[in-house]
């Protein structure tokens, strides 16, 4: 029986070779796209699975009215909570910033690597595999340092296991020496915790006043909870404790207390931290984009299934007599369904194999696009996709299987099934759904292109072309070392041929503001702004970036008052204080970064973007870099290059940097325009992926439409022959064959409009500066789909007008 079923299946595959190829091609592409997005999602979900008891370890996050959502906590919040609440077994602090690197030196060798500043119990929370030494006591005192296996290999060669007790020099603030206490092996699985070395946080070596402040958000903290803890109840307790202590500080500083905007504490499981962190997280992934793409790839897979269902039902008239005869000779309905399901499964299995081959070929390029190293070595992936194959085959095969098995022998043997209303209704409904999905993708793709284009072309408020930024390394804090180093480097680099100008600032355009604080009106202290960007700048900063003044003047080095208390504000700050630009001139403010010292506003500049244009411009107060604590925070050169010989100038700067400025460190630089453009990267990738998916959807839909129209028009060839005999011209026949498809297309686009509008309105909510919802993508979608539908169907309809009339008129 099975052998006969397979013979029948291959006969039908060969007979309908075009629709078979289209089915396999469509399913292969659909499965390939889904698998690529799926393995990305699985990869993001696999972070921190290596940690034992991960289900009991939680990242501590905070949110308040002043700073918004924070990944950092204060030391009292962590320590007092642990003592106060029995549910908390312990806490750990791990300050790990992957973009901040320090040089370790041993003898004549050095390594430039990331680090983690932690509490003593770090290796209890994160039990790396021990290579040498004692991990338990690796960082429990001053002068101890634990290094990774990779770091040890660079510094001590292949004999790194004997490095315990050896001394290293840390090229940071004081060039201090440390003793290697342990060597650990980093996990091979996905993790955000990959420090090149680990040391005790310097704040915990000696008691300091800042660690008694509940509002000193400086530490990334983790709680280890006892099994069975009610996490939501604990979050409420922690939030109440934090808010009560923050209110004490706010009363002390005379700040307004808003009970409606209480501070809140959130606990995020460490195994879900990568995607579900409430704040910016630790190397946080873009869950929303992944879920959107996963949903869209599922739609593409659905579209492939729709093609399969539609083509199978369209072939019904060809197999109607076969079903009728089999029922007459005793075949049961269940056997017919099983036979058709096996036929569908065979097509899906071939498509599944081809899809995996396509994934393997595309994976290197996909990894490069994502900046990842995903491999097809996860056994669970094959289990999940195998189950998907079975479910997909069952769903996509069951509808046509039941449909075909329900044929009535008396009707099918008479050959009148092609005129069945049920058959027409089912095909039209499925085709409508197919075109709704296609229209949805076209509309969304056009709107995404428009929004990203709007961001890319928006006036940024500054001119950053041909400007590079180089971070120089800290090598001391005493005696204004960093500000002096900046002046020395600025003076020497300015002599290099091709360098036009140099400036600096404590914030980095493209990376956002680093420091913020509250600012009050010096006369009416009830008027204040809770979070204002601190903008220490060089004197030529505004001229360098061609930032325009809307009122007042720039800082002037000739006036001592300018360098001591003068300030420049941006438009956003002025508006939030309740002034216009002219009213702000001469006004005095009390900044939170300096106790009781008044700053005088000398000028107001036009708003310029420091972060991406998807976020609002922050209020900023700017002043000269060589005052107060800012002296030791301006640690970059922003260099404007001549357009005549950019490559040559970069080579000359590199040579100076590697030989004179900072020997032993890599020469890292970034173009400010390109760095700022990276703030659009997430949305540009969404645009690229959505465009790719849109092309895939249209190809699958149009191939399916071509195959379907071919089958349906072939069923009408006798009608075409009769019409031609009666004198109908080619245009009339083509229109008769295509108008039903055009009506279905128009109806489908109309149905897709509210769905697309809702989806895009939700997507645009992520942008503070967004386009108004345009109408033209909806109109263009209908025009484009009508043209494509007419082109595909009319091609086959035109071929139908060239048939041999005698052949079809004599047939019965």
From TrEMBL:
Q: Cellular location of this protein?
A: Cell membrane
Q: How does it sit in the membrane?
A: Multi-pass membrane protein
What's a single GO CC term here?
plasma membrane
Query: Which controlled-vocabulary keywords does the entry list?
Result: Cell membrane, Membrane, Transmembrane, Transmembrane helix
Keyword Magnesium on entry: no
rRNA-binding: is it a keyword of this entry?
Answer: no
> What InterPro entries does UniProt report for this protein, alphabetically?
ABC3_permease_C (IPR003838), MacB_PCD (IPR025857), Macrolide_Exporter_MacB (IPR050250)
- Domain called MacB-like periplasmic core: residue spans: 20-240, 435-654
Spell out the coiled coil positions from the record.
none
Q: What is this protein called?
A: Antibiotic ABC transporter permease
Taxonomic lineage is: Bacteria, Pseudomonadati, Bacteroidota, Flavobacteriia, Flavobacteriales
